[in-house]
Amino acid sequence: MAASGGCKGKSICSKHVTMLTAVIMSFGVISCCLGHGEGDRDDRLRAEGKGCIESERRALLAIRSDMFDSDERLSSWIGEDCCSWRGVACDNATSHVIKLDLHHPYPYDLVDEGFCAASETMGVSKLNPALHDLKHLEYLDLSMNNFSGSHIPHMIASLVHLEYLNLSNAMFGGLIPPQLGNLSKLHYLDLGGCRHSDPRADDLDWLSRIPSLKYVDMSFVNLSKATNWLHQVNSIPSLEVLHLRWARLPYIPSPLPHFNMTSIVKLDISGYRNFYPAILRWFSHASSLVYLDLFECGGIDIESLQMTLGALSNLKALDLQYNLIKGDIFGIVMNVSRSFKHLDLSWNSLSGEVEQVLWSLGPLEYLGLDVKGFDTQYTRILSLVTSIDLSNNNLSGEIPRELTNLHGLLFLNLSKNHLRGTIPEKIGSMEQLESLDLSMNNLTGDIPSSFSSLNFLSHLNLSHNNLPGRIPTAGGQMSTFIDDPSIYDGNEYLCGTPLPECPGDAAHQSPPHEHEEKNDDRLETVWEITSIVMGFVVGFWSFVGTMIMKQSIRIAFFRFFDKAYDWCYVQLAVGCARLKSKRQSVT
Questions:
Q1: Is 0.70 surpassed by the pTM of this model?
Q2: Does residue 552 sit within a domain?
């Protein structure tokens, strides 16, 4: 007997289940219809795995509509899921857009060479106000576009979650909004521009309000009115990289602040025309500094430079080009740290013996080896150096023979000095050398024949020396320079291709008419042999081709061959029989 609470038959149970399902679905439909706006719809989309918030998708499409896109880098911006679009990234948990990378794909290594000029012909972009709707952005890159001198929009300062902001080389102009100081989470800030776009900042107080900054680039930003710039960047102890190249930095009155940039690793203030020795000595407290660029700063005296270099034990790269530094170069190189890798002292007024300098450059790639022996130590320590530029100084002495042991050297520039003596005979052993400039010295002696072993040499300048003799152009890479006589200018007694012939060259050559006769004979012989071979080939294949193509001719030929064979056989047999009978009659 069935229980009283049970179903009275399968049909009744089936009806109950159907009715319950209908009720549940009705509630579901009502819930959908009575939803609470666009936010609930976005939640449903995320729950369904579509991964894109509709309001942010529409904001992205609005931004795209105002961007110049000749390379169609935004062609992937179609479909419902904006998180899969190129340059866009979303948070995995919330689906909010957290990254927007719209940088123009111009090669970064060519920016200094041509982007600023090329940007004038690039289509103009505008920054759509819809950017304000991407409130959860943590990463924004608008670099390498052309915003045609427009001001940086204040709405960027409302994106308070930003940790990375790159507006470099985007042709923004005018006053940089101090509201950027509200971006308290920012780690990376690049506002570096082009010379003619002329963005400016009248002070950097707003910068000091971002304590988390690690990277700042304001190269070519006009900071001429930011008189407290050093005090303000000095108040950011987390700062690791600072680029203020050609930023028109103003003079800093004394006294200088207590040094507080304890994390600084890379510092570039090249083109700072108001630089003076006290600032250089102030940098000696930057114990973590690895890279220092003082290109064309001026105001650098050799005593302050020696003291600073002696204190910067972690420094690996230093650029001191175009500073008109006077004094003994040995006083500089003897103070560089053992971890030094790059030192550029070109275009100064330094003096000293070149051999002594090159020996002192050993720490450029110090390996921590206790190697005994003068030549061996020189070779082992400098074996990893790839570039040496000591041009435009007052260096004297001879080129050290040990220099040729630097087999990995790619670039060597010793031009515009007072070097004497000969070019090392074993210079050909520097097989990786790509550029060699020894011009404007007092070098003498023949150009070594080992130059022909420099197979990778693409730039050579030996002009304005006292080199005599014949230019070695037989074979090797030297034969590629025969069209450029300027690389040998100013060597009065140098001769041979591409310069005028050396004395006696004509005597060793055969008379011109003799060469012509020999050439004519050789040409005639070649034509005769060619004609014979061609005649045989044509005749043979004409005969064979006819035999293959025509059956009647082929049958006639073989019949003729058979008859000729039979006739020859009969004639030979008859002749032999007659000869035999004559011999028998004689006997």
A1: no
A2: no
